[in-house]
Design brief:
Length: 113
């Protein structure tokens, strides 16, 4: 069992997004809460080369863009599963709980055109 109090989170921010990472010791899974308030990334797409991401939309709404695929609108209460190496972008104003397996690291995150 692992318990992480909110006071132990690491806060980060960028251009149109922010988040809180919960520092888990488990390398098989991790968790964050993200907030998007525009398009992320601003141009192109992003991908994770090693992990799947499971997002639960806590509040708000947005659009998911998958490279070479149709866009999908989502709202509070929806769930999104992104496979590893899937190229995606978000647009909207929403907050989501995100679990990644195996655990997300910045080294596996890439931006693509």
């Amino acid at each position: 069992m692992e318990y992480i109090h909110k006071s132990k989170t690491s806060f980060y921010t960028g251009d149109g997004y922010s988040g809180m990472d919960y520092p888990m010791q488990d390398k098989d899974i991790n968790f964050a809460v993200i907030k998007i308030n525009s398009r992320s990334p601003k141009t192109g797409y992003q991908t994770n080369t090693s992990c799947k991401e499971l997002l639960y939309i806590l509040n708000g709404s947005g659009t998911l863009y998958l490279k070479d695929k149709k866009e999908t609108s989502f709202n509070e209460g929806d769930v999104i599963l992104l496979d590893k190496k899937e190229c995606y972008a978000f647009e909207g104003n929403f907050e989501a709980g995100v679990a990644c397996t195996p655990a997300w690291t910045s080294e596996q995150h890439q931006y693509v055109d």
